[in-house]
Specification:
The complex is a heterodimer of chains A (152) and B (496).
Chain A: H1 2-21, H2 23-27, E1 31-37, H3 47-55, E2 60-61, E3 64-65, E4 67-71, H4 75-86, H5 90-104, E5 110-112, H6 115-124, E6 128-133, H7 134-137, E7 143-151
Parallel strand pairs in A: 4-5, 4-6
Antiparallel strand pairs in A: 1-6, 1-7, 2-3
Chain B: H1 2-5, H2 8-60, H3 67-81, E1 83-90, E2 93-96, E3 121-130, E4 133-142, H4 144-194, H5 209-290, H6 298-323, E5 331-334, H7 335-352, E6 355-361, E7 367-370, H8 372-390, E8 395-406, E9 415-424, H9 431-436, H10 454-464, E10 468-474, E11 478-486, H11 489-495
Parallel strand pairs in B: 6-8
Antiparallel strand pairs in B: 1-2, 1-4, 3-4, 5-7, 8-9, 9-11, 10-11
Classes of the chains: A alpha/beta (152), B alpha+beta (496).
Chain lengths: 152, 496
């Protein structure tokens, strides 16, 4: 009986540990957010302007044209960006941005595959806007959240 | 079996089948991917855009502050957007459309790709960013229609590819038939030409230019070869005729040389024998003149004289064969009259043997230069010879007199001849006998029934008249003697 009880306890401990460190548990807390530099003039950005910004259209705040930065460091974040921010498929977005670049000469949003480089570029540019997981910037005084894009 | 497996149409069909077996599955797989991707991207793009529009509306509108308007907005998602699920999660409140076709649907998390979750519903959620609300819009759209559309497109594509495969096979076989049919036609015609049907044209009706050109080339070759073949056949025929003529001439030359040799020998012997007979006959006649009529030796001497005279006649005949007659005795004579006289003379004798004479004598005079008596003797000898040949069975002897342009020495060419033909239906002769028939003392008759000089004498007479005497015979059928004597020059000119 004692042996059986010890075995059940062992299973319970393993279950709790695995559940605590599993991706689901982590993912449940993930939130995709739109961020700017702490020194940015941007205090808020509605969904329409955010969409226009990342589609390549000029968006002005206090007379300044904002600069979009794309975060390609995480595949899931890229899916959130496409579904919740620009509301397009990957092909549709690329086609749209390319069409603007070719027809109107609009610059494509700069792309970053490394989140560190992205945050560095963001902090030095008060007009830059990007998106990331809130866990990436938790406790970072150099950035400011202006919008929640998605909650898991 | 090998002929079937080697046939072009089967190989083309198999090649087409192999190409289709590789091409069609890969084509189907690739196009299916393109179709599925296109349809799913279209679906995802539309639902994302639509959801974004609803979320934007909620952000700028005050629907969240009025539950009744929120319900209408969620209903419009179901009604206008084709959704199957629409709800707002705002703090602890949850608002949900009640007209959703599947109210038991449970939000299971966002789908970021078409077909995700395996529940045929594409879920997505968008936070509503308003200061006084921490809300989230959750909507779900039915994927089954798009799945069905993709499946239907695949089915139609599969059907189209199957039709394509079938048609391509049929086209391949049809094309192979178009090629092989004229080729087989050409082959059949070529074989007929090869088997001797040189007039068979190797032309085929086909729309394939290469095969048409091939047929024309073969036809040209056939025409060329046929011409060459005809020339070769003509040359071979000419050579055969020339060879036959040469052999006949050689045979005649051999016979002539043999007759000349025999004639020379016989003439020499006859001359010497005649010299021996002259004193025998002269002295015997003198002795008879000296003896009285009742002298007992007179009868014996008379018999010696008679025998000597017969011997002189024999010698005379031999000399006639070997030397002919003197041209100084030649005079114009009508060949028809000579033949008629000879026939008249022998008609009764022949009739007694059951033999009739059928005379076919030219109406116009056929004149030659020669000795009438000797020529008469020739015709008589020929008739007697025919009489002997037909003695046992009887029949009709055809005697024909006419003119002809016949053979002569190669240098002289064809010359006009007077011709006498004596045709019997007797027992005939074999080739050996025919070749020796003009030799002196050669006879097939029994001993005592002929001297074997008749035809020899006739040959000598005709030869001395610059003529020719020919015989053709077939054992059991009969013989034809043909005497050719040059016509008188005046007459031949007149005829010409």
């Amino acid at each position: 009986m004692e042996r059986r009880g010890a075995l059940m306890l062992k299973r319970l401990v393993i279950t709790v540990v695995v559940g605590a460190i599993s991706p689901c548990a982590v993912a449940a807390e993930r939130t995709a957010v739109l961020i700017v530099s702490a020194t940015s003039v941007v205090t808020s950005l509605d969904a329409h302007d955010a969409r226009l910004l990342f589609l390549g259209h000029p968006v002005r705040v206090a007379g300044h044209v904002l600069v979009p930065l794309r975060n390609l460091s995480d595949a899931r974040l890229e899916q959130v960006f496409l579904q919740n921010l620009v509301a397009m498929t990957s092909t549709g977005y690329d086609r749209y941005v390319l069409r603007l670049a070719l027809q109107q000469g609009r610059p494509r949003p700069r792309e970053f595959g490394d989140s560190g480089a992205l945050l560095a570029a963001l902090t030095v540019s008060p007009l830059a806007v990007t998106y990331t997981w809130d866990s990436e910037i938790r406790g970072n005084p150099d950035v400011r959240i202006v919008r929640v894009l998605w909650r898991e | 079996m090998a002929r079937v497996t080697d046939s072009l149409w089967l190989r083309v069909a198999l090649a087409t089948l192999a190409v289709n077996a590789v091409l069609i599955p890969s084509l189907y797989y690739r196009v299916s991917q393109v179709v599925a991707t296109g349809q799913s991207e279209n679906f995802v793009g539309q639902v994302r855009t639509y959801a974004r529009l609803i979320a934007d509306e909620l952000e700028i509108d005050d629907a969240l502050d009025h539950p009744e308007r929120l319900a209408l907005l969620l209903d419009s998602v179901i009604l206008s957007g084709g959704g199957v699920f629409a709800e707002i999660q705002d703090a602890n409140q949850r608002y949900r459309s009640l007209i959703a076709p599947r109210n038991d649907t449970v939000y299971t998390g966002d789908d970021f790709a078409f077909g995700g979750g395996g529940d045929q519903i594409y879920y997505l959620s968008l936070p509503i960013n308003r200061p006084e609300h921490d809300a989230t819009l959750r909507v779900g759209f039915d994927e089954s229609a798009t799945h069905a559309q993709i499946a239907e497109t695949k089915r139609q594509m599969l059907l189209a590819l199957a039709v394509f495969a079938g048609l391509s096979m049929l086209l391949a076989i049809w094309f192979a038939r178009i090629v092989t049919k004229p080729v087989r036609d050409i082959q059949a015609r070529s074989r007929r030409v090869a088997s001797g049907a040189y007039d068979e044209h190797i032309l085929v009706r086909t729309s394939v230019a290469e095969i048409r050109d091939l047929a024309q080339d073969l036809e040209s070759m056939r025409t060329l070869l046929t011409g060459v073949n005809s020339r070769l056949r003509a040359e071979i025929r000419e050579r055969e005729v020339a060879e036959a003529s040469r052999m006949a001439l050689e045979q005649r030359l051999a016979v002539s040389q043999r007759l000349e040799t025999v004639g020379t020998l016989a003439g020499g012997v006859a001359h010497e024998f005649n010299n021996l007979l002259t004193p025998i006959l002269l002295l015997t006649e003198n002795a008879l003149d000296d003896l009285t009529t009742d002298h007992p030796a007179r009868a014996d001497l008379a018999r010696v004289a008679a025998t000597a005279r017969r011997a002189r006649k024999l010698v005379h005949d031999v000399l006639t064969f070997s030397r002919g007659f003197g041209t100084e005795r030649a005079q114009p004579i009508s060949l028809g009259e000579i033949v008629t006289d000879a026939c008249d003379l022998l008609a009764s004798q022949l009739a007694s043997h059951g033999i009739a004479i059928q005379r076919e004598i030219a109406v116009r005079p056929v004149m030659v230069s020669g000795d009438a008596n000797l020529l008469h003797q020739v015709v008589t000898n020929l008739l007697v010879n025919a009489d002997h040949a037909m003695n046992d069975v009887g029949g009709v002897i055809i005697v024909r007199v006419d003119t002809t342009v016949g053979e002569d020495d190669a240098d002289a060419g064809p010359v006009p001849y007077a011709c006498v033909e004596v045709i019997d239906t007797g027992h005939g002769m074999d080739e050996t006998t025919t070749n020796r028939v003009f030799e002196p003392f050669f006879t097939t008759r029994q001993v005592g029934h002929g001297t074997g000089l008749g035809l020899s004498v006739a040959h000598g007479i005709i030869t001395s008249m610059h003529g020719k005497i020919r015989v053709t015979s077939q054992a059991g059928v009969g013989s034809t003697f043909r005497v050719l004597i040059p016509q008188l020059e005046e007459q031949s000119n007149a005829v010409a």
